[in-house]
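Fold it.
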Amino acid sequence: MSDKALEKAVVRLKNGDDRAFDHIYDKTYKVVFFVAFRILGNKHAAEDVVQDTYLKAVSNISAYDSDNFVAWITTIARNNALNEYNRTKRQTATDFSAEDGYREGNFSMPDEDSFGLISLAKNLLDETDYKIVIMCSVAGYKRREAAKALDMPISTVSYRLKQSLELLARHVKGGSK
């Protein structure tokens, strides 16, 4: 789905066509998830934030008035994830909260193998480079689409994507930064 198709789906959703949500969700889910995952470091917490993000986005869809839905929804996801991170950070430790994976330094993920490279990218890359890698390599965005969503020139996105992937490849092969 191109940016135009995504924006058309958003307009349809604003006009009451609930079926448009499926198209919007399919196009944006991976980016929204990995924005939350980068902040929380926990798959289950990120999934909860994703759900809250889409609920908030749909309930406030009338407030959306730009032409960059991906930037709008990832901002909501980022804010929700930061709120969740701060909320769980303030909680008093209990026997089961220490095991639930929300505490800093205790991110136990049951399927860590499937997130190994994502975790590596999260740890090695800055937030913008991480978003570029997730959008282009995981979510399937074209560099042009990622550039528009991030409000950057395509050449910058291409360069940063190439540099980030090379850094990740060197690190996987046992090299250093």
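The two ends are 35 Å apart (CA to CA).
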